[in-house]
Each structure stands twice: as C-alpha cells, then as structure tokens.
Recover the amino acids of this structure.
C-alpha cells in the first residue's frame, strides 16, 4: 500500500487545548417520505398539490456503516472475561443511526474472509476508541484500511472516520512508524478546539457547522477529549478519511463520566459530525444485496447495559 501514502497526507484542521475545566414504516423498496423542509405549506384549497423533489440518483439513501469491534468487553471484565471477546460501545451505533444509517459490526477476530465479505456490504467504516495498538487488532485495522483505500482508488467514495485510538492507529499505519505517537497523560475532560490559522473548512466536517457553533468550539468546552495540546482533527487530502482525537459521539450518548458535556451545543456537535459522516457514506455507490445486509446488521445482536457501574460505557455490544 506504499503508493497510497503520498496522497494520504492528513491535513490538520484543528488543535485542541485542554481547558482547566405500523404503516408509518417503509418497506425495503418504498419511496422516501417527502421532507417537510422541502415543501411549502399546502392548503386544501390549492388546486395542484406540490410535487416532491426528485431524489438524487447519485446518492445512496440507505447507507450502512461498518464499525470495527475492539478486544475486550469494554467494561474491564465486569461483563465478560472471555479472552476471545470484543465489543462495540453502543454509543457509536447510536451516533451512526442518529444520522440515518444502519450498522454492520465488523468483528476484528472473525475469519478474514468473513470480514472482507462484510466490508463489501457497507458504505463507510468507523474505527473506535480503545487501547489496542498491537497484534491482531492492529493488523485488522491495517487490512481494513487498505481495503478502504482500494475501494476509493477503484472509484467509490467510501469514507472513514477514526476516533481517538482509531486516529492514532491510522497515524501509525500511514507514517509506517510505530513510535510516532507521543506519550500523554490521560485526563478525561471537556475541551475547546482551536482552528489552525487560515484553515479552509470547505469539504471538511466543520463546513456544516453554523457560525455560532464554530465560534463556541473555540471558547466553550463542548467536546470531550483527554490530552493537552495536540492535533485534534485531521482529514485526508485525497481520501475521505477524517480523524478525531476527541469523542464526537459521547456528548449525546454516554453518561458514565461526569465530565462529558451534555449541553445543547455539545449535542449539536455530535449531530453535525454524525450528519457529516453519513452524508459522505451516501455518496458511496456500493449497493449490496439487501438480504445480505439484513442478515449482518447489528440488529441481530443485543447490547448489554453496563452503566450502573458509574464508569465506562453505558451500553456495549459484546461478540464472543
Ligand atoms: C471476571 O473476572 C473478575 C476477576 O476475577 C471477576 O471479578 C468478574 O466477576 C468476572 N466477570 C464475569 C462476567 O464473570
Ligand atoms: C472468536 O470470536 C470470533 C468472532 O466472534 C469467532 O469467529 C471465533 O470462532 C471465536 N474463536 C473462538 C476460539 O471462540
Ligand atoms: C518515528 O517517530 C518518532 C517520533 O516522531 C521519531 O523520533 C522517529 O525518528 C520516527 N522513526 C522513523 C523511522 O521515521
Ligand atoms: C468547495 O469545494 C467544492 C468541492 O470540492 C468546490 O466545488 C467548491 O468550489 C469549493 N468552494 C470554495 C468556496 O472553495
């Protein structure tokens, strides 16, 4: 995959500074509902009902996101001590679903052919946070990432978002340097994000942020991270890859730490990032057989509530 690296320069967008502080359901082939935002109010007395705008034939309105599971139970053994266990925090699933996509779990230690088959059923991939930086997990991230780049090279628009550990692993993979990461002392807290001077936000995750929210990113503590000053958000120059060293999904969906911001603005950040990711996935032309998608959706699994411990994730999907 060496030839990709020239094109995979990650452009830093931001650094962060830690602050001190029934029939309503559609079936598989039915039309989408008209969007309220696109139609003027229609009065019964109007002679001709307004027609709904045509759907964009270039977009996939049924995107599916693959989320790679991480070793362990996500709860320090409180839920499972199975050495083969891996998990996906349900907050990542909700994050994706909240923006109009469904999820297929990519289980990191399942047979490679199965993983590849599932990768062909999705329109984008999310690499989660966690701690595993070596072994099978690292090599699976590497393999999945390579295949994602190949999909893009072959002409599909196939986005990736990499959060925290995911971002760090992509940094190691792209730089081919296992020691590129600097040590940091973890201190979970809300933070501000500072844009790098003269950053062009066009085409980035921040393009869709309204001006008031962009402003608040740098003044209010509305994102959750755990480092001091560092590069916090990057995007690929030639690939739809975005990395976050903060946790865009937690604001709306995780309650275990008192430091996670839950203000309306913090939740708006979660929503805009999710909308960005899924809007990228709608550009993917991959249209796998519907039945195969259904058979592999995360709806075939049940999450476990672990939030009563008062720490860690509220809900996790565990795969053994
Ligand atoms: C896992 O092992 C720990 C330590 O022995 C134990 O406290 C915990 O209850 C075990 N978890 C489960 C789900 O059995
Ligand atoms: C480990 O988990 C994976 C994914 O669920 C499964 O495919 C594999 O058979 C499991 N291996 C063992 C030894 O249980
Ligand atoms: C890997 O990254 C570290 C930290 O930036 C640097 O000191 C080292 O020279 C790099 N190694 C290689 C082979 O580039
Ligand atoms: C933003 O990016 C799009 C697509 O890359 C391009 O067509 C457009 O001209 C850009 N707009 C600005 C203001 O740079």
């Amino acid at each position: 995959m060496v030839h990709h690296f020239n094109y995979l320069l990650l452009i830093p967008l931001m650094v962060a500074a830690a602050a001190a502080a029934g029939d309503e359901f559609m079936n598989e082939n039915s039309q989408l509902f008209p969007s309220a935002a696109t139609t003027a109010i229609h009065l019964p007395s109007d002679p001709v009902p307004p027609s709904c705008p045509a759907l964009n034939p270039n977009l996939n309105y049924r995107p599916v996101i693959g989320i790679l599971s991480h070793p362990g139970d996500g709860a320090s053994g409180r839920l499972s001590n199975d050495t083969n266990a891996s998990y996906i925090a349900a907050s990542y699933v909700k994050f994706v679903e909240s923006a109009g996509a469904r999820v297929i779990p990519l289980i990191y230690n399942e047979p490679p052919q199965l993983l590849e088959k599932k990768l062909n059923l999705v329109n984008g991939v999310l690499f989660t946070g966690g701690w595993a930086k070596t072994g099978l997990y690292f090599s699976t991230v590497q393999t999945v990432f390579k295949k994602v780049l190949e999909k893009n090279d072959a002409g599909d628009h196939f986005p990736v978002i990499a959060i925290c550990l995911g971002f760090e692993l992509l940094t190691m993979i792209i730089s081919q340097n296992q020691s590129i990461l600097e040590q940091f002392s973890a201190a979970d807290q809300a933070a501000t994000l500072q844009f790098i001077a003269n950053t062009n936000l066009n085409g980035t995750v921040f393009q869709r942020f309204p001006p008031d929210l962009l402003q608040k990113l740098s003044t209010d503590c509305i994102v959750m991270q755990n480092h001091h000053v560092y590069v916090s958000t990057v995007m690929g120059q030639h690939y739809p890859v975005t990395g976050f060293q903060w946790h865009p999904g937690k604001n709306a969906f995780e309650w275990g730490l008192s430091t996670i911001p839950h203000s309306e603005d913090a939740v708006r950040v979660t929503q805009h990032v999710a909308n960005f990711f899924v809007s990228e996935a709608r550009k993917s032309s991959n249209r796998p057989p519907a039945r195969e998608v259904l058979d592999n959706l995360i709806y075939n699994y049940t999450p476990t509530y672990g939030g009563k411990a008062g720490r860690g994730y509220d809900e996790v999907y565990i795969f053994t």
The helical segments are 90-98, 112-119, 135-153, 165-175, 211-219, 250-253, 264-281, 290-296. The longest helix spans residues 135-153. The chain has eight helices and 13 strands. The mean pLDDT is 84.
